Amino acid sequence: MYIHHVAAYLPTDIITNEHFTRLNGLSHEWITERTGIRARRKASPGENTNTMAVEATRRALAEAPTFSASSIELIVGGTYTPHDTIYTVAHAVQRELNVSDIPVVSISSACSSLLNAVEIVEGYFALGKASRALVVVSEHNTAYNNDLDTVAGHLWGDGAAVLLLSKERISEQDLRVQSIRTGGAGNVGKADQSVTLKPVERGIVMPFGKDVFIHACTYMTRVTQQILEQNNLGIDDVTFLIPHQANLRITKNVLQQLGLPEERGVSNIEELGNTGCAGAAIALADIWGQLHPGNHIVVTVFGGGYSYGAMLLER
């Protein structure tokens, strides 16, 4: 299985930390010290999870002309911030592409949805039910967020990304998906309470951030080590590590535990905030042009409900 191209869409509205200083007194220094976040993107009126996904899809296909919309045989969408729980992000992308009679699936495993979506594609490919697929991950966090929440209201940003996947190699620039490992730890710690989004109540809340921090660092480090060992690779073989973009302190902790220098960690949280399951895919799009033959990239994620995973890519 190969990733032929990755493209992202980010809203143009930029919300700096000063916005939260004016609202609830949280200083720029206080926010950056604890999260690393300096700014985040916010969807404009009229934008939503589906529209951002559609725009990212347009960009991906425009940048990869050999991957035609008519050749797509499967669409898998991932989000925990849906615009519509019935007409899902995957349906919106299918309508944009005008491709009929193919499977469209939308999933939610919190911020781990990216890897679960790719894993679903892997299953379809293995069963011979598709040979080209599109994975779209999109989050409209600000639609659910309460900016006045001094615990987590300053964390969230909006954005979307699209991965074009094929069963066979299309070009020399493709990334081979060597391996994917996913798991769930919903039975440990405060997984049932630490991060929740109950639309009929208060939207996104994170009352137990310390529990999230501890388990995110533990599981992303562990699953990265496992996937490297599974593929007979060492930490020195990793060109880039792309962790879930939740908190810069988490990223630095994981890098430290693995023994990777900070320059090998890819981070966009400073300017984008936590963009949920889209964050790691946006980061992969950010470094796409920097990748060379022989590079190994590990994408590792952790989400609310304590789902987690890692994906090993090779150019």
UniProtKB/TrEMBL annotation:
Domain Beta-ketoacyl-[acyl-carrier-protein] synthase III C-terminal stretches: 228-314
Signal sequence extent: none
InterPro entries for the chain: ACP_syn_III_C, ACP_syn_III_N, Thiolase-like
Alphabetically ordered keywords of this record: Acyltransferase, Transferase
Organism lineage: Bacteria, Pseudomonadati, Bacteroidota, Cytophagia, Cytophagales
Stretches of the chain forming a coiled coil according to its record: none
Beta-ketoacyl-[acyl-carrier-protein] synthase III N-terminal domain: residues covered: 107-177
Recorded superkingdom: Bacteria
UniProt name for this protein: Ketoacyl-ACP synthase III
Pfam family name, one: ACP_syn_III_C
